[in-house]
Amino acid sequence: MIKIINNTPFESHRRFLDKSIAILRFSGVLSYDTSTTGHLKIFTIFMRILSNIIVIFYLLTMIADAVANYNDLLIFASDSCFIVGWFVAYSKEAVFYLKRHGFSEFIDNTHHPVDVLRQSTDLGLLLDVKECMLYEAIDYYLLSLFVIVLGSAIIISSLILGKLPNRAIFPFDTTIPFYYRLAFFIQTYNTVYHLVVLITIDFISWQLMRYTTLQLRVLSFNYINCKGDSLRPVSPGLTREYIGALKISSVFSIDDQRKEICQFTAFEESEMTNISVTFTERFKTCIKNHLRLIRVVKDFNDTFSYSLMVQLGGSLLVICLNSYMLVMFPGDKDNFIRSTAYLVSGFTQLLYWCAFGTQLKFQADFLMKSQWMSGWENSYDRGIKNLITTAMIKTMQPLEIRAGGLFVLRMETFLSILKSSYSVFVLLTTVTD
Questions:
Q1: Residue 318 and which of 183, 257, 269, 366 are 20 to 30 A apart at CA?
Q2: Could you tell me the membrane topology recorded for this protein (predicted)?
């Protein structure tokens, strides 16, 4: 049962998104809008230039160390892991920076319909939104904890041991105190910067996929509810009462049947009162929203396709190389801790991406079944056949997240990368033996 507590506020689903965007703007990855003061714009440019100089210089020192120690398998493999991680992080940062001018519009196209959905009086829909918000909060706090723990562990352990966080070859003598502190600053800045920015970018991307999946679920029920009762006008008082009645802690105690959406739901303000009660008009509204979601997924693929390709390749190498170092150098404690942390991170990051891609594809594939269950056979409109045919043709086109236009993000891809990582791992160990 849901605990009813009146006047309980319904949190904004954008609060973690706004915090994440603020972090990227502060880091120089995203730009401030035209209404921002000049001081902040100058600060953003400064952070962007400073960060690029430091992270590129850091990469060169790592490459120099890997080249100088190519005969030492442990050092070369360890440096390679850091270099691969650098390319994964930097590719995502570069994509966000290049797409920064259209990013706000992309966010609004994805999140604005959710603002409208939250005004619904349908309890099932509100529960779905609450569930998304709960998972979003869990993701945000877990990722924040991960950044704090891992970043602090790297810095504190280096200070205690009196050595640099990572191996590198600098063009100056790091045994001199001043140059040692400079090298320490470069490495810690790069570590913290990439950790924060990479995790923030992934978080934003995952939430875009989560709320797109939510809208696909709502659209599926809209197709089914084309034959239902007329759309009820939203009552502001009733909406606040429903929203205030839902405690986020009680969402998981409700069975799936209670979470079914029973009303034909509006995605835009104009749809709240202007939708006809006829089947044909409702079905046309569903097609319009279906086309909008197709564009949203296309924009997501256009934005992240390249960086996701780098992500898949980077995850494969990180999992493979760290597994290799764990097996081949079991007596090195520092290597064991570092390799385990990177192995778990690479595994979890890849799992998250593929899990979100699987959920989105599942909801997209369910659309055709929903169209078939819409009650079209009971409609006697002359043009209903063409309408249904047009809608189903659109549904037959794959709606999925792709990496590089080649690999679909789904659990099968996750398992395929694990198998490929194991194959490369066996090859490395065989050649070493």
A1: 183
A2: Multi-pass membrane protein
